Amino acid sequence: MLNEKLFAGLDVSTQGCKLVVIDLKSQSVVFVNSVNYDTDLPEYKTKNGVMQNQAEGVSESDPQMWIDALHVVFEKLRQSSVPVDQILCISVSGQQHGLVSLDTEGNLTRHKSKLWNDFETTEECEILTEKSGGLDAMVCEVGNSQRTGYTAAKIFHMARHEPEAFKKTSTFFLVHNFINWYLTGGKEGGIRVMEPGDTSGMALWNPKSGEWSKKVMDVISPDLHTKIPPLKPSDQSIGSISSKLVEKFGFSPNCRIDAGCGDNMYGAVGTGNVVPGIVTISLGTSGTAYTYMEEPYVDPTGEIAAFCDSTGHYLPLLCVSNLANGYNEIVKLYDLSHDDFDEIMKQTPPCNKGRMLLPWYMGERTPDVPQATPVYFGFGLADFTKPVLCRAILEGHILNLYDGFRRMPVTAREIRVTGGLSRSEAWCQTIADIFEAQVVPVEGEGAALGAAVHAAWVWTKESGEAVSLESTGSSFVKLVESKRKDPIDQNVKSYKVLKDQFSGLSARVRGHEGDDPFALREQLIRSEST
Q1: Is residue 450 within 8 Å of 9, Cβ to Cβ?
Q2: What stretch of H or E contains 181?
Q3: pLDDT tens digit sequence for 205-223
Q4: pTM, rounded to two decimals
Q5: Do domains 6-265+445-479 and 324-407+488-529 have the same CATH topology?
Q6: Nearest-10 Cα torsion for 116, 117, 120, 126
Q7: Contact at 8 Å (CB) between 18 and 33?
Q8: Are 229 and 194 contacting, i.e. CB atoms less than 8 angstroms apart?
């Protein structure tokens, strides 16, 4: 292989690290490999990438584990047939919101990183919101509400409970910024910068105004602004790969490191969600729905995250904490294969005769109920059967996602789904019916592929060639046309009532006003019997 145009994408996620290399000339993926933290790095004793034996609500990982995973995938690359020295640029996708703290010499001041799904900072969120003037004032300051998933409360928690570690910290990083620092030299001159996409999820920086909030920072600590790295645009490179990695793995010293971004931003690139009208839904342990916008959207309730994307535009995003987790547990409980589950769905009626589930199996992010538990509604004593429960799980998770999504100012012309559940016909069809849009699964490597495409785009632009991100990635985004689903008219009609029923129940359980779920259930049952 000579004179290829090779580009690499790294996805440092909660549970593992994936490396994808693409060849821009042949328009092909030439290398894919990954590390599972639990099985490939057992010395860290993680489950689903998270340290064990922590207090309830705590979710943390050792940042050194991510560096070790990086070395493993780079070594696999070195031993492959791919000419490592022809990789021109690397881009890093990182799990969003995780906090990494370094001192001036590059040592970790805290050897545990609080992750996106850590719920220990509820009190910090409340204090930040109250001292900033309430929810409306907070949204005005940072474009978002304060949530336990975001980074501001994690920094505040450290300042309140570990003041010595906070004092020693000279730099607060997000996960992908930390990896970029390491790639560009680490303790030997690594570059300390951030970029707007991932930074907009910190709840310290306003993606609409492009300014840091002095008010929120001062609540945390008057010197916090000195510990935040400068921002660099998302569509530029930040430097070259370190000489140590050149020597160890065979990279070219001219290999560039692009600014990188959060995993959702690169999930958008990896699914071709870089033009208006496309919505990506990621079906993982948590679930996300997001879309490209040319102008910022700020939700006054803070439920829709106001994020920048990796192109200089915007990516309003909905995230629910519970999605595949409920599904995974029920197939395990009944020893079902994915095909078995799909068959059960064919034998059960859409809308489940009004029997419905609020699937809040762990603290929920949207709606914001960190101490939530699941609620079963409309179930008689004889209704807790395998078919009814399976249907309730499927619809409950999708309805929960839709109930947040309906706030987003977008009419989807196409929904592209990713994640393991995107292979399920039942999931795809139910999403089409509830969201009232065409649904098509996307093949490929998700955020890691998006990172590689972004690296190719940035390098090409910086080489003086005008090119769009859409055209750069078009050959790499593979839609599974055989599984494309159109909404079924009769199902859409029934789900309109069930969506209102879910929304009413969710509101009332949380102490808000909402439609009467009992009356709506009766209306649904009457309409199905006629």
Answers
A1: yes
A2: helix 175-183
A3: 999 999 999 999 999 999 9
A4: 0.90
A5: yes
A6: 70
A7: yes
A8: yes
Only one residue has tokens 């493993």, namely 72
Question: What residue spans define the domains of the chain?
Answer: 6-265+445-479, 324-407+488-529
CATH class of 324-407+488-529: alpha beta
Which structure tokens are listed for 154?
A: 């994690």
178-182: long-range contacts (C-beta < 8 A, 24 or more apart)?
178/63, 178/66, 178/94, 178/100, 178/102, 179/10, 179/12, 179/66, 179/67, 179/70, 179/92, 179/94, 179/260, 180/92, 180/238, 180/257, 180/259, 180/260, 181/102, 181/106, 182/67, 182/70, 182/242
| Structure-block tokens of residue 411 | 């009419």
303 half-sphere exposure, CB direction, 13 A CA radius:
18
Q: Which stretch of DSSP H or E encloses residue 50?
A: strand 50-51
Report the CATH fold assignment for 6-265+445-479.
Answer: Nucleotidyltransferase; domain 5 (3.30.420)
- Reported as a single tens digit per residue, the pLDDT across 389-439 is 999 999 999 999 999 999 898 988 899 999 889 999 999 999 999 999 999
Q: How many residues does the chain have?
A: 530
Bridge partners (DSSP) of residue 320 are 287
